[in-house]
Each structure stands twice: as C-alpha cells, then as structure tokens.
Design brief:
Elements lengths: L14 H15 L3 H8 L4 H10 L2 H9 L3 H10 L2 H10 L7 H4 L6 E2 L5 H11 L7 E5 L5 E6 H6 L6 H4 L1 E2 L10 H8 L6 E5 L5 E6 H18 L13 H28 L1 H6 L2 H30 L4 H36 L5 H32 L8 H24 L2
Parallel strand pairs: 1-2
Antiparallel strand pairs: 2-3, 3-4, 5-6
Helix pairs in contact: 1-2, 1-3, 2-4, 3-4, 3-5, 11-12, 13-18, 15-16, 15-17, 15-18, 16-17, 17-18
C-alpha cells in the first residue's frame, strides 16, 4: 500500500510579513512616539515586538512606554527574554534619564578569571553582542574595574583580570538626567559608560552616541517649543493632529496680544493728538522683541548645557540688562533721528522732544526685554516646566507691553 509522505512545514520567511515589518519600521522611524503608537495600535503584539526590535533603542522604549499597561505587558512578553527583562528595567526609570537608555551589561568577568579564560569567554560573547570594554564585577555584581581590550591582548595568559583592570572606574547612575550625564562625560569621550545603582551594582551600559543623540533630539525640539510647536509635531504628522498641537498656544498668544492692545488703547487720546507716534509703535516693539529673544536664546542654551547654575542667574540678569542698555542706546540714536526727520517732515512743533522720547523708550524697553528674556525660562524651570515651552510667546508679550507702554507714557508726560 503506497503512503503519502507528511508535508514538510514551510519554514521559509514570508516575504509579505517581512515587507510589512520593514514598512512599519520606516513609518515609525519618521514619527514621534505618540504617532508611532497610533500606527502600531491595530497590529498584533508579535508584529509590534518585531518592529520595536528593529528600531533605535531610545525610540523603541519611548513608543513602548506610551502603550497602556496591559498591552505593554503583552508586547514585552512577545519579546526575547533578555530584551524583555532589560526593557522592563528601563521602563522603571523616568523619561530623559540614563536608565531609559541603558542596554544589558555584557562582557562581565569575575576578578579571579585569567586572561586566557577571559579571551575564551569573549570569543563566545562577541557572537551575540558588540563588546567594547570588559567589566570586572564581584559576587554581588558590584563594579570593581574596567578592562581595556588592548591590555588583554598584551597581557600574559596566566594573569588575572583583577591585575589588569582600571580601578575605581567612572560610571553613571540610572536616575541621572541625560542633560546631567552629558555634562559629566563632556571631556571623557568614551564609547560606552557603565551604569551602576546606588549600591554600585552594574545594571546596564549607556553608549555615548545614545546620550548625545537623545540630547540633540531635545535641543532640536527647543526652537519649536519656544513658539508652541510640540516635539511630536513633525513633517509626517497629520494636519489635524498638528492643528491640535498648535492651536491652543495660538489662543494663548491671542489673549496676550489683547493685553498689548489694551495698553495701546489706554493711550488712545495721546495717539489721537500726536498721530506720528503710531508710526513708531512697530519699531519699538520689533527692536525690543528681538532683544528679548536674543536673551532668551542665551538663557536656554545655558540651561541646556548646564552653564546656568543658581549662582550665575544674577550675573545673567545683569549682563542682559547692560547689553540691553548698550544696544538700546545705539539703536535709539538712529531711531530718534528717524523720528525727528519724520516729525519735522510733518511740521510737528515738538519734533526734538518726540525724538528724545523715542530714544528713552528704546533704551528702557531694550533693558526690560533683555532681563525678561532671561527671566522667563529660569522661572518656568523653577516651577517644574520645560523652560523652552512657549517661552517666546511670553517674552514677546512682555516686550510689546513694556515697549509700547513706556513709549506712550513718556509721550504723554513729555509731549502733551
């Protein structure tokens, strides 16, 4: 009796599945973490796991963190065990900390391991992981030293790794903010940094490029945050979502514009009697606004790079006030000459006094704007907010109110 052989299971990769994963990876890579969740929400846990494994470590964790608790657990269960354990640990730490960027520690050796034994272990380890340094840890997992591959290569095979290791190695902590970590490693330039907990136990590795990449992402988002464009608003963001991101800040900006308009409205009688003043309101607002934004940019840069500590705040305010005075003086002279020529052309009897008012208003508004440009981000940070968040909107409002209010007040006192 002839029998039909059992069919061989088809274990060849599915081209359709591979194409789907590749497309999802490309789409997610061009999206913010919030958009990535929307793209992946309808996919199976296994597909999401495959996509996350193919992504940049930081983006994968940011995306995973945005899923709801039950779905997040299901996705973690679909990941390979070592990666699942490491990412579960990473997610215990807050956003923008070293703990979120950690990779699983590899290349660990006991202190009594010989060079020969270490090299044999490394030959196996490098097949599964990219290893830059070796790490000597005791029985409790505490970091005792770092091994440089060159030293292993040149050492005697019988030497113990504890004799070769660099003792008291530099390390980061998982709860350290990325910004603080960048300052700590600024002059070191190591490709990898060990991450140890409060007890000194090696719990992960942070790659130098990952730290700087994360910091660069935050810095690149500052320009948008200053005017109310959130980090999640990117070129690929759907227009409706971009509208939801931006519109609330425009409403706030409208309210602050009403405040500036109210100041001008208070001096309606003054403007009515001296019409030439209206022509110079935009000049004052524009110059003081630029002064404030310059101070804002310097303050944000100082906060980002860690230059602006509490003992430097007074220095920053003094410096920006002095720069505002100098800039206001030199710009004020040109603006005063412009006002004199314009008022004289209009045959206004108080052209010299109007020119003097413009000069005083320009100097005063530039000083105020410079100080306020430094004050806004520092104040936002003290209250626990992102110092870049819509700071330009608040600075612009303050400079408009200060410049136009000062200009029209001086005109009322000295001209009428």
């Amino acid at each position: 009796m002839e029998t039909t052989p059992n069919p061989v299971p088809d274990t060849a990769p599915d081209p359709g599945h591979e194409a789907q994963i590749k497309k999802l990876v490309a789409d997610v890579d061009q999206s913010s973490s919030a958009q990535a969740v929307q793209l992946l929400l309808e996919q199976s846990d296994q597909v999401i796991a495959e996509v996350l494994l193919a992504l940049n470590h930081s983006l994968a964790l940011k995306t995973l963190a945005r899923f709801k608790k039950d779905r997040k657990k299901a996705i973690l269960d679909a990941l390979p065990s070592p990666r699942s354990e490491q990412w579960t640990l990473n997610l215990h730490y807050p956003m923008n900390t070293v703990g979120r960027l950690m990779e699983k520690p590899v290349g660990q050796f006991a202190p009594d391991v010989t060079v020969k034994q270490a090299v044999e272990q490394l030959r196996k380890m490098v097949k599964e992981a990219f290893i830059t340094y070796g790490y000597v840890t005791d029985a409790q997992g505490k970091l005792r030293g770092v091994l440089v591959m060159r030293d292993l290569l040149l050492a005697s095979p019988s030497q113990r790794v504890s004799d070769l290791m660099l003792r008291d190695p530099f390390s980061l902590t998982p709860r350290m903010a990325v910004q603080d970590a960048i300052r700590a490693v600024w002059n070191k330039h190591f490709p990898v940094y060990p991450v140890c907990d409060e007890e000194g136990k090696l719990i992960g590795l942070a790659r130098g490029y990952a730290l700087f990449e994360e910091q660069n992402t935050r810095i690149s988002a500052q320009a948008g945050a200053m005017v109310g464009v959130e980090e999640g608003d990117r070129l690929s963001t759907p227009w409706l979502r971009s509208f939801k991101f931006r519109h609330p800040w425009l409403q706030i900006n409208l309210l602050t514009a009403f405040l500036a308009a109210a100041v001008v409205g208070t001096f309606e009688e003054t403007i009515g009697q001296v019409v030439v003043l209206a022509a110079f309101l935009p000049v004052l607002a524009g110059q003081s606004g630029n002064t404030g934004c310059q101070a804002l940019a310097v303050a944000l840069r100082g906060l980002t790079l860690g230059d602006l500590k509490k003992d430097k705040e007074k220095f920053l305010f003094t410096k920006e006030a002095w720069l505002g005075f100098l800039n206001g003086t030199f710009v004020g002279v040109i603006a005063a000459l412009g006002m004199y020529a314009y008022a004289a052309f209009q045959n206004h009897p108080q052209a010299p006094m109007l020119a003097f008012v413009v000069f005083l208003a320009m100097v005063g508004s530039c000083v105020i704007s410079g100080v306020f440009g430094a004050f806004v981000p520092i104040t936002l940070k003290k209250f626990g907010f992102d110092p870049a968040t819509a700071s330009s909107i608040f600075v612009t409002t303050a400079t408009d109110v200060a410049s136009m209010g000062l200009f029209l007040s001086l005109a009322t006192l000295l001209v009428l």
